[in-house]
């Protein structure tokens, strides 16, 4: 029997999973690593720690499953998008990777807009210049660390650094490359115009393929480090959202996914490229060959609840340890004790700035409407509702672009909470489904490896063979009008607070420079 291995290089850790061809999970392993924040708004990680985590998780998978590594048919890769990994001519990492949530590059995004023109950038890449995209990060290094910039030989995305370590090959695929601001998304190839305008040398970038394509095989050195067999095929895989969409069956029109991980993402399949002329939604290549997707992003979705847990959840963490329960389950139980709408308490989840719909790296998080009546469980529920309102912002924009969505698949860590899924159903006012395979991007990456190695004839066939609905929730009729009323207030709050948020940012920068 052959197996498929999926590796997801996430923001908080690597998750590696082994699957049978029918989609059933054989073994899973995770390994965490730190997020470095040397200054407010900065976010970095050491790529070498990603690789160390991959080595650990693969070894644990092989041990858990008690399989012969020769039975692994193919490997698929997924990972956090937009990160900047710089290598020198010897393949050594030049500096910590600037990852997707790093917000230091607003000036570089503005410079791109001024030099090339916002409309031209959207024409070349289907997206506007944003601080999250890889191109702005490279410009920041060029300006602030010229001693690093002059040594660059290769520029890679996070999962493609792992591909290099596994295979010795430099390659990427269309879904992840879409988030660099260097890809012509409509033509699914590097944009010569953008490379020329930004003075990016073509030889720095890896070849770009469709996501199922086998772009390398496990090297002798990687085999010795991981326990895999030399020559095992490694497929392109996908950026975490595209791979996660494959793992959720979002491979045809009429279906969207709402993922609550560290970030939150609403992802809708499109047969043709659809571009938001205002750039509020991302238009990226899908991991399905010749298809695209629209994507809206909440910077701090599950990350907001993680922040709350870390800062105010000592009691819940202690109880979780004592009761041997998940701390997030306890927080969900607290939220269930509060009525829909949190009795007038609203949360803006802009802890790391915001992408959709505001495109504002200086937006700030806020609880609004606090009274002496509100207790800790109100804050928990309000936080979960605020994140869900933010996801609704993306769905509303998709409706503006005539994207028809019949139902939404919920995924990510947040989707494990039934109360959070019910909030999605009530706030979106639509049916929410989950699928049996809840391994997200790692599962989608494994399916893409299955297509690349001939286990399945197509991505659609892979999904039909492996994905089954696990749960369906319908909107609670009594909650829908409550949330509609509160959402109308929520939508006004960003505009009401924007000037104050920007003033606060300037004060913090001034204090840092003093």
Verbal overview:
α14 (376-400) crosses α15 (418-428). The strands form 8 sheets. This protein has a 7-stranded mixed beta sheet with strand order 18-19-17-16-22-23-24, with helices on both faces. It has a 5-stranded mixed beta sheet with strand order 3-2-1-5-15, with helices on both faces. It is globular and about 65 Å long. The chain starts with a strand and ends with a helix. The protein has 2 domains: 3-248, Nucleotidyltransferase, domain 5 (2-Layer Sandwich); 302-434 and 477-513, ATPase, nucleotide binding domain (Nucleotidyltransferase, domain 5, 2-Layer Sandwich), CATH 3.30.420.40. By secondary structure, it is an alpha+beta fold.
Architecture blueprint of SSEs:
Layout: E1 3-9, E2 13-20, E3 25-32, E4 44-45, H1 47-65, E5 72-79, E6 85-87, E7 97-98, H2 106-116, H3 118-125, H4 134-144, H5 146-149, E8 154-156, H6 158-167, E9 171-173, H7 174-177, E10 183-184, E11 189-190, H8 192-197, E12 207-209, E13 214-217, H9 220-226, E14 233-235, E15 238-239, H10 240-247, E16 255-260, E17 264-270, E18 282-285, E19 292-298, H11 302-312, H12 314-323, H13 327-336, E20 346-348, E21 366-368, H14 376-400, E22 407-411, H15 418-428, E23 431-435, H16 441-452, H17 459-466, E24 469-473, H18 479-513
């Amino acid at each position: 029997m052959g197996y498929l291995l999926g590796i997801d290089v996430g923001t908080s850790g690597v998750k590696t999973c082994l699957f049978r061809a029918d989609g059933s999970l054989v073994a899973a392993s995770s390994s965490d690593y730190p997020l470095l924040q040397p200054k407010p708004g900065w976010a970095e990680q050491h790529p070498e720690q990603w690789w160390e985590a991959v080595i650990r998780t693969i070894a644990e998978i092989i041990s858990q499953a008690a399989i012969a590594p020769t039975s692994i048919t193919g490997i698929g890769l997924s990972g956090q998008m937009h990160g900047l990994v710089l290598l020198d001519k010897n393949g050594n990492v030049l500096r910590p990777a600037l990852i997707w949530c790093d917000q230091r590059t607003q000036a570089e995004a503005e410079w791109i807009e001024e030099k090339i023109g916002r409309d031209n950038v959207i024409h070349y890449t289907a997206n506007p210049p944003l601080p999250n995209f890889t191109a702005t990060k490279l410009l920041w290094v060029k300006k602030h660390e010229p001693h690093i910039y002059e040594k660059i030989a290769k520029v890679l995305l996070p999962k493609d650094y792992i591909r290099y370590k596994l295979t010795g090959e430099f390659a990427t695929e269309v879904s992840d490359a879409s988030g660099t601001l260097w890809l012509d998304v409509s033509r699914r190839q590097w944009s010569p115009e953008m490379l020329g305008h930004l003075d990016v040398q073509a030889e720095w970038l890896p070849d770009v393929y469709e996501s199922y394509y086998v772009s390398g095989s496990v090297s002798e050195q990687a085999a010795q480090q991981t326990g895999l067999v030399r020559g095992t095929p490694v497929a392109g895989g996908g950026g975490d959202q595209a791979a996660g969409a494959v793992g959720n069956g979002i491979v045809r029109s009429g279906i969207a996914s709402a993922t609550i991980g560290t970030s939150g993402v609403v992802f809708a399949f499109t047969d043709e490229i659809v571009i938001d002329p205002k750039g509020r939604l991302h238009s990226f290549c899908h991991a399905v060959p010749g298809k695209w997707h629209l994507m809206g992003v909440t910077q701090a979705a599950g990350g907001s609840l993680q922040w709350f847990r870390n800062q105010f959840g000592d009691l819940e963490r202690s109880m979780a340890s004592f009761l041997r329960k998940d701390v997030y389950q306890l927080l969900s139980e607290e939220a269930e004790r509060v009525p829909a709408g949190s009795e007038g308490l609203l949360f803006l989840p802009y802890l790391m700035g915001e992408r959709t719909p505001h495109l504002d790296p200086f937006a700030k998080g806020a609880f609004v409407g606090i009274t002496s009546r509100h207790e800790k469980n109100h804050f928990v529920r309000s936080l979960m509702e605020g994140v869900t309102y933010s996801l609704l912002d993306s769905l509303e924009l998709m409706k503006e672009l005539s994207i028809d969505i019949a139902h939404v698949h919920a995924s990510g860590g947040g989707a494990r909470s039934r109360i959070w899924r019910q909030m999605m159903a009530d706030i979106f006012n639509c049916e929410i489904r989950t699928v049996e395979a809840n391994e997200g991007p790692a599962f989608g990456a494994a399916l893409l490896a299955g297509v690349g190695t001939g286990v399945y004839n197509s991505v659609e066939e892979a999904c039909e063979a492996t994905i089954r609905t696990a749960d369906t929730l319908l909107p609670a009729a009594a909650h829908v009008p409550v949330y509609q009323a509160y959402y109308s207030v929520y939508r006004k709050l960003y505009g009401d607070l924007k000037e104050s948020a920007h003033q606060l940012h300037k004060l913090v920068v001034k204090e840092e420079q003093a």
